[in-house]
Structure formats: structure tokens, C-alpha cells
Specification:
Order of helices and strands of chain A: HHHHHHHHHHHH
Largest sheet of chain A: none
Largest interface: A-B, 49 and 41 residues
Oligomer: heterodimer
Helix content of chain A: over 70%
CATH architecture of chain B: Orthogonal Bundle
CATH topology of chain B: MetI-like fold
Low-confidence stretches of chain B: none
Structural class of chain B: mainly alpha
Number of strands of chain A: 0
Shape of chain B: elongated
Distance between the termini of chain B: 43 Å
CATH class of chain B: Mainly Alpha
Mean pLDDT of chain B: 86
Number of strands of chain B: 0
Low-confidence stretches of chain A: none
Strand content of chain A: under 5%
Distance between the termini of chain A: 9 Å
Structural class of chain A: mainly alpha
Order of helices and strands of chain B: HHHHHHHHHHH
Number of domains of chain B: 1
Shape of chain A: globular
Mean pLDDT of chain A: 84
CATH superfamily of chain B: MetI-like
Chain lengths: ~325, ~300
């Protein structure tokens, strides 16, 4: 077990190097002079200034050296400065990340709270109308664009019924109730696909577990159906749910890019989209890096959690 | 012939049918969801190919007498804030949706499958290097790649296809590799090697065919996902740019008018939903028809 985790951690080192290199290499795709990445749009510099800038950003150095310098800076928490407002990218991304993490967390909680009970009910009432209804909804939920569902919910709950705010962000720490009210629609739009996948996963895991001998034994011993389902079956059914949750991290971050734009939430996604339009390359690079690293860590955590939770899996090799 | 492959004593093959794909198609169409999916896809392909002839109006033509109209005999699905016919724009939008999903999945398969083959055939450090690269690519969701590429290369249909395509590569490579692993160890590969067949031939003729079924399934499901990503990009404004109508940028233009004319926001969303649903249905059914064992492998 420890060996497995250690090996998994070691494996991540080359992946980490490749990921960071890919983000670093993004700047290559800029047509023309790479110095342009460090100049705000509409800015015109003469040859001497360009040369100075080139040297300042080590563009006169070989590629490997440039990468190592960039990586070293990034490891030290320096992601450069925005070409638009000269703010520290790390600082800006950090501020925004807190908001995106809140949104992601609420999306996670909402989807689990809906999906797990729905999956259990679906499994327990297998083949009955309730099961069909849940299955149909989950199939639809995977195909629906989350942001469009968001638009439709804005139309229903915001425009027509006026129940929930549809734009902006209020910190949960400052005003928990209002913060949550603002988070509800975006979180649901963001979590809808995960919700459907977790529901399906819970249902099939539950069905598999309930066919096992120990469940029959529990029933034969005269245990109540509730105890059998909630204590014996559910515990083992939640294992695959952990995997789905972990693998959804990427989807949550990618989704946040769109959902934050739709609901005007000042998170990392909105920062990234704004930076794209302002051609603020360092901010784009910094945000992409942080999001990619978050997905990488989530995948690692999922693997470890899986190994730790599943008593059947032994990793001694 | 130098090919000294024995008659494969351990594997018994079903007698080769003349048209194996016809049998698959028949089984596929017997599944109601898949039949629905095939019909929807057929309609979309039809619209995309014949768009210039079947649109009731020029998608750019403005009708100032009927701006933001609802459903009517003149404009079956209404019109936008410049009086442009929604149905016509929807039909032209099928072209982008189809080109992007085909292009992106094409890149994914054409780059990913050979990488998977190389990985599984050569094993050892080649496998390690290729797979660590794939592990790294998996970390970037397609939307993130697209936004990043749009920042440095500008927004165009090429950027969108390339971005979603890159994000597809690792999944295709992983599937070919995992399916190929079992095949790689079979005796007929060893005998083909002993018979002096070239590596390329072994990979292409002996390993690849055994990975085609899951690859097709994954490709079909990825088509739907590509449509979703393209729409999302269009909505945030980094996808295919107006005036070319795409479902994503139609939704973007409709959003500020949500209160005045909700129909404009509803119609493109339903189209996206139907197209994704169709690909998911066909993909799921293909998986069950081609190889029921894949149920746990491909989601």
C-alpha cells in the first residue's frame, strides 16, 4: 500500500514535467515575435526596448534554460505579471481560485446529494417507474449542455419566478445564505453531468453489491431492509463514486470557464476568458497551469483514495 | 510466402460473414434509441450537405419588419434581433457542428491510435514515454486547451478542431493500448514476428483490427462531447466567429435577449441536446452490439 502510493507519487514527476512544459510551450504558438507575449496589446516598442525585454525574459537563452528558469520561478510562486495591469499573476489567480473552488465544492455537494439517493432508489426499485424516470433523466443530463441548462434555469427561476439571483457572486464566508443563493444555479449547471454519472455509477454498484452473498446472509439473519441497504450495501457501493468524483475535477474546472462567464462569477474561469480577449498571455498561462495541476492532483488523490478504501485491492508488487 | 503463421489452434473463429458491418447495422437499428440516434444524425448530415438549397431564407438576410419574431408561418422557429431566420441559421449551424466533431475526433483517432499501437507493440521505455505524455495530456480538458490555443492563435474553426482533437488523443491512445495488451501476448503475434513480418504490418494487420471495435465506440461518444465543447466555446466567444452562424454563437447572441425573446435561447440548445443525445445513443448501442464486454471499459 505504502509502496503503491510512493510509486504513484514518483510516476507523477515526469508527468508534472511534461504538463509544465506544455503550458510553457503555449507561448510558441503565438504567431510572430514571442516578445509580444510580454507587451500589452496596442503597445508599440522600438527595437532597443524590444531587445531589453527579450533579455529580461531570457528569450536570448536556449529553450531548455528558459524552461528551467520559468519552472523555477513558478515553483517559487512567481507566475509573472499581467501585461494589462501589471498585477502578479499568482496573486490574481490565487484570489480567483478561492471563488472557483467554492463553486466547484458546492457543485460537488449538490450533485452527490442528488445523485447518491437517486441511484439508491433507482437500484432498490429496479425496473419500476421510479427507476425508469431516474434513468431517463440521467441520460438526458449527460447530453444537455450545462451552460444551456443554466440559461434555462435563469429563465425559469430568475426571469419568470424571480426566486433566485442569476448574476454575480456573494462570498459564502461573509453572507452564507445570500452566498448560497447565488451559488445554487451555477453549481447545479456545473454539476449536472457529474450528477448523472454518479447516479448511474451508484445504481450499478448498488445492484452489484446487493446480489452478493453477504447481503443475502444479512437478510437471512433477519436484518431489516433499511439496515441492509444503508449499512451493508451503501458502504461498498460508494467506492466507484469516489472514482467518478475525482475524475470529474477536470470537467468542473472546464465547466467553470463557461458557467462563470454565464453567471458573471469572478472566478478563475472568468479570469481566463477575460485574459484571452485582452491577450494577456501571462495570465492565460498562469490560469491554465493552475487548473491543469489541480486536475493532476485530483487524479492522484483519486487513485490513492481508491487504493486506501478498497480492501480487496492489494498493491504489494 | 514467408508468413509461417500456424492455424491458430487456441482461437476458434466464427465463420467469416461476407458483410459483417451489415449484421452490426441490423443489430444496431433494432435498438430503438440507436435507431432514433441514427435518424437524428442522418437529418443533421442531410442539413449540413444541402444547407444552401434547403434553408428557407439566406441565413444572413435581415428582415426588419420581423425582428425577434416568435413562431410563425413566415419564420417557423422565429427570428433574431436583426430579423434573421432562426431555422435557416440552425440549418447552417449543422455544418460547423459536424465539421468540428468529425475533425476533432479524426485528429484524436489518427494521432491517438498509432501512438497506442506503438506503445503496446514496443513496450518497455517507449511505452513509458508515450503513456506519460498521454497522462500529461489528459490533465487538460478540451475546453481548457481550446481557450489556451484561442488566446495564442486566435479564434477560428481550425483552432477549435485542433484543440478538441488534441484533447481526444490520449483517450484514443489509451483505448488502443489497453485493448492491444491482450492481443500483444497472443501466439500469433510471436509467430508473425518469427515469420519475418514487418513491425508496421504486424501493428496494422494483427493488432489494430482487434482494437477497432472499442475505438469506434469511443469515437462515436467523443463526437457528442465535441459538439458540447464547440457550443460552449461559441457561447463564451472564443469559438467560430460570427457572422458564420453556429449553435454556440447563436446562444451567445441570444442570451442578452433572454427576457424579450426566450425562443432564441431555447432553439439552438435543443438542437445541441438532440445531436449529443443521438451520438450517445448510437455509441452506447454500438458498444453493446460490437462487444458487450466493453460495458465497464468505456463510459
Amino acid at each position: 500500500m505504502r509502496q503503491y502510493i510512493a510509486r504513484r507519487m514518483l510516476q507523477i514527476v515526469p508527468v508534472l514535467l511534461i504538463v509544465t512544459f506544455l503550458v510553457f510551450a503555449m507561448m510558441w504558438a503565438i504567431p510572430g515575435d514571442p516578445v509580444r507575449a510580454f507587451i500589452g496589446p496596442g503597445e508599440a516598442l522600438d527595437a532597443k526596448q524590444m531587445e531589453l525585454l527579450r533579455r529580461q525574459h531570457h528569450l536570448d537563452q536556449p529553450l531548455v534554460v528558459r524552461y528551467l528558469i520559468w519552472l523555477g520561478d513558478a515553483l517559487a510562486g512567481d507566475l509573472g505579471r499581467s501585461t494589462i495591469n501589471n498585477r502578479r499573476v499568482a496573486h490574481e489567480v490565487g484570489e480567483r481560485a478561492v471563488i472557483t473552488l467554492q463553486l466547484g465544492l458546492v457543485a460537488w455537494i449538490v450533485s452527490v446529494l442528488i445523485a447518491v439517493p437517486a441511484g439508491i432508489v433507482s437500484a432498490v426499485y429496479r425496473g419500476r417507474p421510479l427507476d425508469y424516470l431516474a434513468t431517463v433523466i440521467s441520460i438526458g443530463a449527460v447530453a444537455v449542455p450545462g451552460f444551456w441548462l443554466g440559461i434555462m434555469m435563469i429563465l425559469l427561476f430568475g426571469v419568470t419566478l424571480g426566486w433566485l439571483p442569476t448574476q454575480g457572486y456573494v462570498s459564502i464566508f461573509e453572507d452564507p445564505l445570500e452566498g448560497l443563493r447565488h451559488m445554487l444555479l451555477p453549481a447545479f449547471s456545473l454539476g449536472i453531468t457529474s450528477c448523472a454519472l454518479i447516479m448511474r455509477q451508484t445504481r450499478s454498484a448498488m445492484l452489484e453489491v446487493m446480489a452478493q452473498d453477504y447481503i443475502r446472509t444479512a437478510r437471512a439473519k433477519g436484518m431489516g431492509e433499511r439496515v441492509v441497504i444503508w449499512i451493508h450495501a451503501l458502504r461498498n457501493s460508494l467506492l466507484p463514486v469516489v472514482t467518478v468524483l475525482g475524475l470529474q475535477t477536470g470537467r468542473i474546472f472546464a465547466g467553470a470557464v463557461v458557467i462563470e462567464t454565464l453567471f458573471r462569477i469572478p472566478g478563475m474561469g472568468q479570469l481566463l476568458v477575460q485574459a484571452v480577449f485582452q491577450q494577456d498571455f501571462t495570465v492565460v498561462q498562469g490560469s491554465v497551469l493552475i487548473m491543469a495541476l489541480a486536475v493532476l492532483l485530483a487524479n492522484l488523490a483519486t487513485d490513492i483514495a481508491y487504493a486506501w478504501l478498497d480492501p480487496r485491492i492489494k498493491y504489494n508488487d | 510466402m514467408t508468413d509461417a503463421a500456424p492455424a491458430l489452434p487456441t482461437i476458434t473463429h466464427a465463420p467469416r460473414r461476407r458483410w459483417p458491418w451489415l449484421a452490426v447495422a441490423a443489430k444496431l437499428l433494432a435498438v430503438p434509441q440507436a435507431a432514433f440516434g441514427v435518424v437524428v444524425i442522418a437529418v443533421i448530415v442531410f442539413c449540413a450537405l444541402l444547407a444552401p438549397w434547403i434553408t428557407p431564407y439566406d441565413p444572413q438576410a435581415m428582415d426588419f419588419k420581423r425582428m425577434m419574431a416568435g413562431i410563425s408561418a413566415d419564420h417557423l422557429l422565429g427570428s433574431d434581433r436583426m430579423g434573421r431566420d432562426t431555422l435557416s441559421r440552425l440549418i447552417v449551424g449543422t455544418q460547423t457542428a459536424l465539421i468540428v466533431s468529425l475533425g476533432a475526433v479524426g485528429i484524436g483517432v489518427l494521432v491517438g491510435a498509432p501512438l497506442g499501437l506503438i506503445s503496446v507493440y514496443f513496450r518497455g521505455w517507449t511505452d513509458d514515454v508515450v503513456m506519460r505524455f498521454m497522462d500529461a495530456l489528459v490533465v487538460f480538458p478540451s475546453l481548457l486547451v481550446a481557450v489556451g490555443l484561442a488566446a495564442v492563435m486566435g479564434s477560428s474553426i481550425g483552432t477549435v478542431i485542433l484543440a478538441i482533437g488534441i484533447a481526444n488523443v490520449p483517450w484514443m491512445a489509451r483505448i488502443v493500448r489497453s485493448q492491444g495488451l491482450a492481443v500483444r501476448e497472443q501466439d500469433f503475434i510471436a509467430s508473425a514476428e518469427a515469420g519475418g513480418l514487418s513491425r508496421l504490418r504486424i501493428m496494422a494487420r494483427h493488432i489494430l483490427p482487434n482494437t477497432v471495435a472499442p475505438l469506434i465506440v469511443q469515437a462515436t461518444l467523443s463526437m457528442g462531447y465535441a459538439v458540447l465543447t464547440e457550443a460552449a466555446l461559441g457561447f463564451i466567444g472564443v469559438g467560430v466567429q460570427p457572422p458564420t452562424p453556429t449553435w454556440g454563437n447563436m446562444l451567445q447572441q441570444a442570451f442578452p435577449l433572454l427576457q424579450q425573446q426566450p425562443l432564441l435561447s431555447i432553439v439552438p440548445g435543443v438542437a445541441i441536446f438532440l445531436m449529443v443525445l443521438a451520438f450517445n445513443f448510437v455509441g452506447d448501442a454500438l458498444r453493446d452490439v460490437l462487444d458487450p464486454r466493453l460495458k465497464g471499459v468505456i463510459h
